[in-house]
Amino acid sequence: MTNSMKTSPGNPPNNHQILILKYAISSRLLLLALIIFWCILVHPYDTSSPLNPTCLSSNSLNHHHHHHNVLWPQIGSAIEDSIVWDSVYFVRIAECGYEYEQSYAFLPLLPICILILSHTVFAPMVPLIGLRAVLALAGYVVNNVAFVLAAVYLYRLSVIILKDPEAALKASILFCFNPASIFYSSIYSESLYSLFSLGGLYHLLSGAKNIAVLWFALSGCARSNGVLNAGYFCFQTMNQVYHDIFLKKRPLLAVKDIVIGALRCACIFLPFITFQAYGYYNICHGRFLDETRPWCKSKIPLLYNYIQSHYWGVGFLRYFQLKQLPNFLLASPILSLSFFSILHYVRSQPEIFFSLGFRAPTGEKSSTAPFSSQDTTPITNITKSKEELSTKVQENQNLRQRSQSSKGDDNPTLPEHDLLQKPGCFHMFIIPCILHLGFMAATAFLVMHVQVATRFLSASPPLYWFASCITTSQGSGKKWGYMIWAYSTAYILVGSLLFSNFYPFT
């Protein structure tokens, strides 16, 4: 492989992308095999998953097909038995629409995809296995295909950020076997959210801003936290405005960039806001005052927040109870990895982070151009070549090994110093990614049910970039790399066992 192929962010090696496709598909087949194995071996905790009352609306598909005889009832029943936890809501919405208030907590992108696929490609299978089984099968296909595509987009994005196809490859392989893998192969919204979030980031850095807006908006149709992706445009607009005012001395151009940035952010928020308005119209509109729900009378009647608080007890510090300690322990690995990822990148370039990219590192000249989609030069490569940095890494590693040998210290420590010198591990766009990760991690720890942090944070690219840096470093970094792989393996095995048999897991 030539050096130009290794360093060109616009042309990632095709053999790497093919390899990522193989890893992603293999990981999904592995999860499928594990699910089938555990379902055969272990008796489910709750056997109510096949229960499915007739839809409230007489115009729904359920009304017409629920009582029809099917040719392969055993296969249909086996598929229906796999509809557990939140999957019940997504399949029910695809089948019957939004019937109950709490169902509005689940955004419509996944149910819409399930409905479209079951009406087209899988429609001939309804007489064979039944409608609900077809809906579930469509959900599995949508999510597993979306996951494979998300892995490819993570690789393409990582090549741009890390400037190193090998490191990008390792980061993407880690994603293929991430600890929340069971949810990416189930009827959950994680796969679609990851696809459109990672794809949006890639298109944004590639210069296709309008496409990025569309993809980010679709991520907000999959999960509510998709609206946070508007922050990437806020960061980019902020840098452009700074450049317009202080470097170009063109305040009118700055106003134009602010307006464009605001419109793009509004487009990203629009699907989520529209869905909230849809819920308000269905639940609150046309009712007498004494019949309306409490949230309908609020100044800002936000249905999503009310559902999370009223039905699931989500709120600031509301989960800080002694009985929830096991759930905090369950989430501690992903929260710890998030903390060290943030700490690593902040310590690598503190001046840049705390100035939000407006200040250059000490001893370097300020950039003459703002951060933009075309700016893909990593900060660590501004004044030093890759060969010089690699030599310094080797010298530091040898020095540390001699020091450890003289002291007899075998305790593993995070290879922070080595990682900071590793070329390609810092890029200006890491700043908004780290801010995004930090906000989500704080929300998961302080506000949400903390055990969902494993899947809530699993689509955050800095986790895999940092883990890739660890696994490619020498010395104690390898020990931490083994720990990360052991953590992922354990959660895949335990998750596929517990989740598929209706036992609590994240």
From TrEMBL:
<dbReference type="Pfam" id="PF04188">
    <property type="entry name" value="Mannosyl_trans2"/>
</dbReference>
<dbReference type="GO" id="GO:0004376">
    <property type="term" value="F:GPI mannosyltransferase activity"/>
</dbReference>
<feature type="transmembrane region" description="Helical">
    <location>
        <begin position="327"/>
        <end position="346"/>
    </location>
</feature>
<feature type="compositionally biased region" description="Polar residues">
    <location>
        <begin position="391"/>
        <end position="406"/>
    </location>
</feature>
<feature type="transmembrane region" description="Helical">
    <location>
        <begin position="484"/>
        <end position="503"/>
    </location>
</feature>
<feature type="transmembrane region" description="Helical">
    <location>
        <begin position="20"/>
        <end position="41"/>
    </location>
</feature>
<keyword id="KW-0808">Transferase</keyword>
<comment type="similarity">
    <text>Belongs to the PIGV family.</text>
</comment>
<comment type="pathway">
    <text>Glycolipid biosynthesis; glycosylphosphatidylinositol-anchor biosynthesis.</text>
</comment>
<keyword id="KW-0472">Membrane</keyword>
<keyword id="KW-0337">GPI-anchor biosynthesis</keyword>
<dbReference type="GO" id="GO:0031501">
    <property type="term" value="C:mannosyltransferase complex"/>
</dbReference>
<feature type="transmembrane region" description="Helical">
    <location>
        <begin position="258"/>
        <end position="281"/>
    </location>
</feature>
<keyword id="KW-1133">Transmembrane helix</keyword>
<feature type="region of interest" description="Disordered">
    <location>
        <begin position="383"/>
        <end position="414"/>
    </location>
</feature>
<feature type="transmembrane region" description="Helical">
    <location>
        <begin position="129"/>
        <end position="155"/>
    </location>
</feature>
<dbReference type="GO" id="GO:0006506">
    <property type="term" value="P:GPI anchor biosynthetic process"/>
</dbReference>
<comment type="function">
    <text>Mannosyltransferase involved in glycosylphosphatidylinositol-anchor biosynthesis.</text>
</comment>
<keyword id="KW-0328">Glycosyltransferase</keyword>
<keyword id="KW-0256">Endoplasmic reticulum</keyword>
<feature type="transmembrane region" description="Helical">
    <location>
        <begin position="426"/>
        <end position="448"/>
    </location>
</feature>
<protein>
    <recommendedName>
        <fullName>GPI mannosyltransferase 2</fullName>
        <ecNumber>2.4.1.-</ecNumber>
    </recommendedName>
</protein>
<dbReference type="GO" id="GO:0005789">
    <property type="term" value="C:endoplasmic reticulum membrane"/>
</dbReference>
<feature type="transmembrane region" description="Helical">
    <location>
        <begin position="104"/>
        <end position="123"/>
    </location>
</feature>
<feature type="transmembrane region" description="Helical">
    <location>
        <begin position="167"/>
        <end position="187"/>
    </location>
</feature>
<dbReference type="InterPro" id="IPR007315">
    <property type="entry name" value="PIG-V/Gpi18"/>
</dbReference>
<keyword id="KW-0812">Transmembrane</keyword>
<dbReference type="GO" id="GO:0000009">
    <property type="term" value="F:alpha-1,6-mannosyltransferase activity"/>
</dbReference>
